[in-house]
Amino acid sequence: MENMRTMLQGLTHDDLLEWAGSKIFERGRSCVSRVAQLSQTEDDGLAAWVSGTRRYATWVSRDSDGFDYECTCPYDWGPCKHAVAVLFKAAEQIKKKQKIPFLDAQSDLYLTLFEGFEGWEESLKDIEDQENVFSLSSGRDKSKNRVEYILAQKSREELLTLLVDLADRHPAVKSSIVEAEQMARGDVNKIVRSLRSEIDDLTAEPAYYNPWDDEENPPDFSHVREQLQELLKYGHAEAVLQVGEDLWKQGRELVEMSHDDGETGVEISECMDIVLKALLKSPLTPPQQILWIIGKILEDDYDLLRGSEKILNNPDYIADQWRDVAAELDSRLQAMPKPKPDDYSSIHQRREMVDWLIQAYQSGDQPEKIIPLLEKEVQYCQNYTTLVDALLAAGERESARKWCVRGFNKTVKRAPGIAAELQERLREMAQEEEDFSLVAAYRAADFFYRPGRQTYLDLRKASQFINKWPIIRNLVLNYLQTGVRPDFGEKRDRTWPLPEPEVQRSQDQSKHVPNRFPDIRLLMDIAILEERNYDVVSLYNELRKKDHWYGETTDNSVAQAVAASHPHVALQIWEKIVDNLIAQVKPKAYQEAAVYLRRMRVVYEQTCSLEKWRKYIHQLRVTHKAKRRLMEVLDNLEKNKKLLD
After folding, report:
1. Would you state the pLDDT for residue 139?
2. Which pLDDT tens digit goes with each residue over 57-88?
3. Are 127 and 134 in contact (CB under 8 A)?
């Protein structure tokens, strides 16, 4: 217990907010009641089950660098709410002086998290070697193996008594036994009808999660998944495919309507993994199997067929089979209507079909058909980049260059993104040919088309490589003041040191709006980049004369840049952002405001003016006293509340 107290000692809400973010922080705090079997580990960590759409095993530990954690939930964009909930639960038990036991190395939680199955594997091996005892697969989950170890030592009468008792007390066990018997008898139609009915119920309404009210209605597809697995186990692959078709259609519609951080998609994806396994054991021929997968992928907007790529790369699918697939895809392609130039949806669908036909040609040892296909289809699909890449791979460099120029001129107005890719290919070719002045010219073209921080950095790097940066920098900054390009047209500056590239956008094709010069915002961003803080403040003041509030992101970047050199400017900016967030009257906005309030506190501390920060917080309390959720945020902020307080 003292180890746990030491681990959490001094840990504040601010620490967790910085680690997890305000959204996950609040969601974690709201699901503390779902934490079960909280335990401490020998490495001074915490482990627990946290229930959500399913029960998730979660481990979290604190070290000198922050936090380390593991969780079996599907959330993989950073710390999850379950890890935060475990920390809050531990603090709650410590404050109540409730003991946190050490994690049992033979418990399901331990096995799930750490797979520490010491001793059991040897015992299981002994059992496997015995005659007339369960055959145990080493690939099975170790927690299941532990149950098998226990059951393997019981007599037939003991097992019968145990199963009958479990069936009486647990309806799910009774259903499982009945379903297993139906499966063993081959009474598949009843199971299929039941599964289809269950899928109808599960997909009847969209899933959602409301973190503020801690409400959710996650559909539980675990029984569907288990039944599909059993059908496959007993050799009913065709039945699994039938059910899989229903699940695919209704599941995609459910995911489209749901708002639950993608958890429903994960559930359906896991079911579809079993359907894919069934596909390989179905009566469908290999070409039919491949076409089945391709057809589903073309409909898959939510990444539900995550295991499909591995199957399509199966070496058991031989070249002759892929040739049959290619013939069918070519037939389907010819049957598709030719898309109109502005019908982007039809263009995308046709392009996807062409991409699959290319893969079929590659896998069917027919690479000679790829370039003629692309040259024929490029007028419909606008897939110039794919054609250029194929030509480059075939060593036809000059043809690739010509198609780059031709494609750029065809797409620069209607499909500028494709034109940008083709220009990038020309730049890459110049790089390979060591024409570094031309490389810099293309970087300049990128900057004038899309002026920004990154294109400025790219141009600087390329220009420094050829020792031309000082003159190019001055001309670029002048362009941001005047809007006159130094590299193009009648007003081309004679001191511009770069060659004219093979393709070039006109001034009116630039993404920059001419009437916004001088571009104070970008000039300010560049000043921030070059750490010219006095220029940053001057440009920011000029910007404020034009726009009262240009945007939270811009304002905050200025404040962070000048917080050390011009603290009063940073504080004024953050105060304005806080006022705008509070005016939204939303709990989420209050949490975002707290981020800036914490930054203000740091600046006040560094300038020995912490009392001013306290007065400011007091003023917020007086002005917004009716906003209860804001008061809670300010309470945590002002105290920098510790978990063990």
Report:
1. 40
2. 999 998 777 788 999 888 877 899 999 999 99
3. yes
DSSP SS3 for 23 = helix
Q: Are the C-beta atoms of 90 and 8 separated by less than 8 Å?
A: yes
Sign of CA dihedral 74, 293, 222, 147: negative
User: Tokens 């379903």 identify what position?
Assistant: 179
* C-alpha span between 570 and 567 (Å, rounded): 5
Q: Report how far apart, in Å, the C-alpha atoms of 175 and of each of 78, 229, 521 are.
A: 39, 16, 66
Average pLDDT score over residue span 105-120: 71
Question: Average pLDDT for residues 154-159, to the nearest whole number?
Answer: 83
Residues in the chain: 645
First to last CA, the chain: 16
Mean pLDDT of the chain: 87
The residue assigned the tokens 């809007």 is: 483
Q: Sorting pLDDT into bands at 50, 70 and 90, what band is 462?
A: very high
> Is the link from the previous residue into 339 a cis peptide, with omega within 30 of 0?
no
Strands (E) across 66-224 are located at 66-71, 209-210, 215-216
Tell me how far apart the alpha carbons of residues 283 and 467 are, in angstroms, rounded to a whole number: 67
Phi–psi pair at 174, nearest 5 degrees: -60, -45
Beta strands at 209-210 and 66-71: parallel, antiparallel or unpaired: unpaired
| Structure tokens belonging to residue 339 | 């898309």
pTM given for the model: 0.67
Average pLDDT in the 372-396 region? Answer: 97
**Which of these, 418, 371, 416, lies nearest to 393 by C-alpha position?**
371
**What residue type is assigned to position 471 of the chain?**
I
Q: How far is it, in rounded angstroms, from Cα 228 to Cα 241?
A: 9
Nearest of 644, 645, 529 to residue 87 by alpha carbon: 644
| Eight-state DSSP code of residue 11 | -
Q: How many CA atoms lie within 13 A of 302 on its CB side?
A: 22
The answer on pLDDT for 37 being more than 90 is yes
More confident call, 608 vs 152: 608
Domain boundaries, the chain: 2-114, 186-307, 435-518, 551-639
